Amino acid sequence: MTESANNKIFDHRKIAPLFPAFVPEYLGIEIKVIESYGINFNAYLEKAADITGEHLEGFDIATNNFLDHQLKSQYIPYIISCCISDLLHKKDLRPSYVTSYSMGIYAALYHCRSIDFRTGLLMIKTAYESIEKNLPGYPTSMCVLGGLSRDDVDGLIRSFQSDVFIINQNSEFSFLLSGNKAHLEKVLVSATTIGAMQARMLPVSHPYHAPVLEHAAATFQKALLAMEIGTNQFKYVSAIDNRIIMNREDIIEELTKNLFHGFDWYKTFLFLQKNGVDTFIECGAGESLYKIGKFIEGDFKIYNLKKIQQLC
After folding, report:
1. Which is nearest to 304 in space by CA: 30, 60, 5, 8?
2. Contact of 154 with 145, CB cutoff 8 Å
3. Residue 171: which residues within 8 A CB-CB, separation 6 or more?
């Protein structure tokens, strides 16, 4: 299908690129698909290595994917998302809205052209270091619960309200929790006994989006004020409160809140549908948002790298 014919098909649709968080596992086709469109992934990788000072050149999905290195495992998905962003711009697939899941916000802002590639990498590095310096005095982590209602989950964490938090709702019966690792493990045991279909810890040691990171967010915000941040060229929808974010001041506020404030993916996805979006594109490694989309009601299509050739 020619590019002009393809664009005609999507002229009447409202498109929303979705930028996922750090990937738990790869599809295995990411680099192959990106390079099939003439995008040199290694050039992005080498540039990122120069900017961050990290040895990223040895990345390989099959043999050396960096998933056991917490900071590198954040850089690589960002780089992949930026490559996909450039692909969409190259194909002139203009979005009605842009949004992101958790730390996918850096690549989403790159897509909105309010930050450049370098600034996104520096944001990831600075956020990580800010968190490392401001962790609570106990081990922390995150976990996912599926198959339970909001009332069920609220009941499970009632005894741990000071250090266990619901920080996201993926769909009607899927939740993400963050906080004290020992208490999260107890919540998982209790969740299993009352019939949770999914109850597992995530391989992270930071309590992302939890209020215990408020001091880290303040440190992060100071650094953001000195960074080059412009205006979004596309409407960015906050996954925290569904505001449309465009200017530098609001971008900095959103980035700061994103570190220690919960978000609501389910509500955000429904908001986009309500505003006419019927075509979603997962712009990143893996297929986490594609899988979540299967459990959200609505008349829409969602594409990931496995299906991106249908769009491009």
Report:
1. 30
2. no
3. 265, 266, 292, 295, 296
Question: For the CA atoms of 154, 160, 164, 170, what is the dihedral angle to 10 degrees?
Answer: -10
Domains defined for the chain, CATH in brackets: 3-133+211-310 (3.40.366.10), 140-201 (3.30.70.250)
Q: Are 218 and 178 in contact, with CB atoms under 8 Å apart?
A: no
Give the three-class secondary structure for 143. Answer: strand
Going by DSSP bridges, is the β-strand pair 140-146/198-201 parallel, antiparallel, or unpaired?
Answer: antiparallel
CA 95 – CA 151 distance, rounded (Å): 36
Q: Is the pLDDT of residue 10 over 70?
A: no
pLDDT, tens digit, 9 for 90 and up, residues 56-107: 988 999 999 999 999 999 999 999 999 999 999 999 999 999 999 999 999 9
Average pLDDT over residues 197-222: 96
**Residue 133, class by beta-carbon neighbours within 10 Å (0-12 exposed, 13-18 middle, 19+ buried)?**
exposed
Q: Average pLDDT, stretch 27-43?
A: 97
Q: How many helices (H) and strands (E) does the chain have?
A: 12, 10
